[in-house]
Amino acid sequence: MTQEQVAVTAEKIRAGKTSLGIEFGSTRIKAVLIDDAYHTIAAGDYEWASHLEDGLWSYTQEEIWKGLQTAYARMAGDVETAYGERLTHVGHIGFSAMMHGYLAFDKSGELLVPFRTWQNTNTHEAHEKLSELFQYNIPERWSVAHLYQAVLNHEEHVSKVDYITTLAGYVHWKLTGEKVLGVGDASGMFPIDPATHTYETEFIKRFDAIEEVAAQPWKLENLLPRPLVAGTPAGTLTAEGAKLLDPTGTLQPGVVLAPPEGDAGTGMVATNSVRVRTGNVSAGTSIFAMVVLEHKLARLHPEVDLVTTPAGDLAGMSHANNFTSDLNAWVGLFGQFAAAIGQPVDAGTLYGTLFRAAIADDVDADCGGLLNYPFRSGEFLAGLPEGRPLFARSPEARMSLGNFMRTQLFSAFSPVKIGMDVMTKDEGVAVDSLVGHGGIFTTPKVAQKILAAAFDTPIKVMATAAEGGAWGMAVLADYLWHADQPLADYLDTRVFADAASTTEAPDANDVAGFEAFFDRFRKGLPIEHAAIESIPLETK
């Protein structure tokens, strides 16, 4: 960056022509500051990981706030180092986080049980009963499924519940005092009516009428945050909130915040996929494929979640709990080997080399008989209550580096394909464009080419593909200045008007190879069930 560019950006920072997005991902909390041209001008992050607490995946409150403050401080430090400016204010702020899960509070605002994340699959009974009651899929990770399962389990805390929200909603509440939620994130708590952009009132009545629920001292509508569509001011940063975000006291209160959103919504924004018949695949620790629907699905499908865009339009989602955790573990093993022989390599070289091996000329289209299951946690789409990562092969399988890495990538995309096939093949959902999004697309062509084979559709990757949800949330924060136009038009005409992209069409040989692998993947699932029975979940 030239001195002139630094000076221009410094002036934008002083003038508040900036927007800050902070997203709590599964493995990283990231803060991204953008200018009014949607360029990232500073960033900071904090790595963290979920842990098992009483058999349930969780993060502590201490981790939430330490991670938030660290990511913010690193971003603010980036601003001071690059532009010589102390970050006393920003134009707008928005928070996003991994969707769903369960954060329940009592009347005094105290957390009643440890945060139950989207990874938990202990709510199967609630999922089945509520889906049948509503004739609408209620996934295991949705907040209402967690609440109802706690009711069914006669958990002691249930009668004390005064408010439930998501992680993004929790952080926003503590920084603004507002019990609100972006409509996209809210649609992962309880079904949203796309016509009114609020909760389905008939479903709420049915829920409250359930015998076990009716016996509680609360009504569901009084427990839920108020849904807000993108572009709606969602409160201002209080003095207490400013100190919670920036304990140094440099950041001043009064900043207007955007509605807090889920990672699905920020993924849609970051890929310009909020218009009907567009879709995106957002890949990280978990993976989801989303398509904005023209109309509701004809039938109830447990494999497809019905959520909304940040603007409130209905979208179908195939969500898999597992994606990169197992893949990263194997790549890490190769990195350790390189270091052991005295040839350590940086992460970019390591991932790039291994990924490119997966599409080399000498690989077998169907992975040569190798098989992998990437399940670190339970996976509803595959009918698994818990996860056990494992790799298997037949004695005659062709074991090579290329086939091994191709197997890793094929298996990572296989769970999400289950729900996507339901939408496109069973329901005839039309998709005009599908955009890949996430760090896995940083290596050119590889993941893009494999995803095109998995879905048998062209996959576009934008230059912003590795920006992530924090950048998407920063864009939603900026949208507060432009909410006089529809979100889809704002993205088309302002944010992505000059965006560079590449498109990878499906290769017929790759498509056939993926289908052969996918058939083997599904037939081999009993191996995973046996592993669950044979291998302890936790190492003593």
UniProtKB/TrEMBL annotation:
UniProt KW Kinase keyword: yes
Domain Carbohydrate kinase FGGY N-terminal: 20-212
Official protein name in the record: Probable sugar kinase
GO BP, sorted A to Z: D-xylose metabolic process
Residue ranges of domain Carbohydrate kinase FGGY C-terminal in the record: 280-479
Family: Belongs to the FGGY kinase family.
Pfam families, per database record: FGGY_C (PF02782), FGGY_N (PF00370)
Transmembrane domains' residue ranges: none
One example GO MF annotation: kinase activity
SUPFAM superfamilies per record: Actin-like ATPase domain
Domain of life where this protein originates: Bacteria
Keyword terms, alphabetized: Carbohydrate metabolism, Kinase, Transferase, Xylose metabolism
